[in-house]
């Protein structure tokens, strides 16, 4: 019985996803078609990539509200340098990723060195990134180069956004599970003072998680721009909420020290399946927001109850 309870506690999101898929398969036969499942994967890709980066931050007991704005700015600069300035394809992609890393580093330094709460630090950087995106674009879309458009294409019939999601997920899992940096993130998130006393550089870890979050956000920006064949000044607006929701739904604790890349992936897929299923059932987009909000509230409530049980 204890094993069953443990399995359900660790895989609640996966169980919910399976049950939801069964319900949708019965109520909407079009849900299980190959084309629709690929569509779900494409819809989930951006959220999942952003959420993989967010996972690092939440495990370290922080929060990153800037990922959507950083994704927009990174893709805008990739479009501007590639299509407007004629940068080589490789350099265009380097610029995009570097922008994400720089913004992540600034957020990390504000949090680690200036002692600003991560909520405030990333809220400020969200405003800066979104403002710079509008300044660079003058509020208008900018066409993207072939290097960026690649991220919206297909390889052997498989959409590149899905392949990118898988690659970034594997990379995130390797960092968290197979590196000393990943173990340090869990240690700092679980007990910062104990981590400090054990010789872990807390400040370095805090900066590192935001840099990684910024890099993952930049890659998500490439996927968004690649799908649209243009960089939009309002791209990824509000996506940070979906990214945070996917991490929490996947079993991570907002108190830090707990989280898995697999859980985050399931959380992102679950959100995409909910939206896709509601679209198939012709549910209003307004009601879709209500449903997503309730799912997020339920996930946070479960996390709160779980932490209360752990303290008793």
Automatic annotation (TrEMBL):
<keyword id="KW-1133">Transmembrane helix</keyword>
<feature type="transmembrane region" description="Helical">
    <location>
        <begin position="65"/>
        <end position="83"/>
    </location>
</feature>
<keyword id="KW-1003">Cell membrane</keyword>
<dbReference type="Pfam" id="PF02653">
    <property type="entry name" value="BPD_transp_2"/>
</dbReference>
<feature type="transmembrane region" description="Helical">
    <location>
        <begin position="89"/>
        <end position="109"/>
    </location>
</feature>
<dbReference type="InterPro" id="IPR001851">
    <property type="entry name" value="ABC_transp_permease"/>
</dbReference>
<keyword id="KW-0812">Transmembrane</keyword>
<feature type="transmembrane region" description="Helical">
    <location>
        <begin position="162"/>
        <end position="186"/>
    </location>
</feature>
<feature type="transmembrane region" description="Helical">
    <location>
        <begin position="38"/>
        <end position="58"/>
    </location>
</feature>
<dbReference type="GO" id="GO:0005886">
    <property type="term" value="C:plasma membrane"/>
</dbReference>
<feature type="transmembrane region" description="Helical">
    <location>
        <begin position="12"/>
        <end position="32"/>
    </location>
</feature>
<keyword id="KW-0472">Membrane</keyword>
<protein>
    <submittedName>
        <fullName>Monosaccharide ABC transporter membrane protein</fullName>
    </submittedName>
</protein>
<dbReference type="GO" id="GO:0022857">
    <property type="term" value="F:transmembrane transporter activity"/>
</dbReference>
<feature type="transmembrane region" description="Helical">
    <location>
        <begin position="207"/>
        <end position="226"/>
    </location>
</feature>
<feature type="transmembrane region" description="Helical">
    <location>
        <begin position="286"/>
        <end position="305"/>
    </location>
</feature>
<feature type="transmembrane region" description="Helical">
    <location>
        <begin position="238"/>
        <end position="255"/>
    </location>
</feature>
<feature type="transmembrane region" description="Helical">
    <location>
        <begin position="116"/>
        <end position="136"/>
    </location>
</feature>
């Amino acid at each position: 019985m204890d094993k069953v309870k443990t399995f359900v506690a660790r895989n609640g999101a996966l169980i919910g996803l399976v049950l939801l898929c069964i319900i949708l398969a019965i109520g909407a036969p079009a849900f299980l078609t190959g084309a629709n499942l690929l569509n779900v994967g494409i819809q989930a890709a951006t959220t999942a990539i952003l959420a993989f980066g967010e996972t690092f931050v939440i495990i370290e007991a922080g929060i990153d509200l800037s990922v959507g704005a950083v994704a927009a700015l990174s893709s805008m600069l990739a479009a501007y340098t590639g299509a407007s300035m004629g940068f080589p394809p490789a350099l265009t992609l380097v610029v995009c990723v570097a922008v994400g890393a720089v913004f992540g580093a600034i957020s990390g330094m504000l949090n680690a060195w200036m002692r600003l709460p991560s909520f405030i630090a990333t809220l400020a950087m969200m405003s800066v990134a979104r403002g710079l995106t509008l300044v660079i674009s003058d509020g208008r879309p900018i066409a993207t180069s072939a290097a960026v458009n690649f991220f919206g294409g297909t390889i052997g019939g498989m959409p590149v956004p899905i392949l990118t999601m898988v690659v970034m997920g594997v990379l995130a899992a390797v960092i968290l599970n197979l590196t000393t940096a990943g173990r340090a993130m869990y240690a700092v998130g679980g007990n910062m003072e104990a981590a400090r006393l054990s010789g872990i550089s807390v400040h370095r870890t805090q900066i590192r998680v935001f840099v990684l979050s910024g890099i993952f956000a930049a890659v998500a920006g490439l996927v968004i721009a690649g799908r649209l064949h243009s960089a939009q000044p309002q791209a990824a607006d509000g996506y940070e909420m979906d990214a945070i929701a996917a991490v929490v739904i996947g079993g991570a604790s907002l108190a830090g020290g707990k989280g898995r890349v697999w859980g985050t992936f399931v959380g992102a897929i679950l959100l995409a399946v909910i939206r896709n299923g509601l679209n198939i059932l012709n549910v209003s987009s307004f009601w879709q927001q209500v449903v997503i909000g309730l799912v997020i509230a339920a996930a946070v409530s479960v996390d709160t109850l779980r932490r209360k049980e752990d303290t008793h």
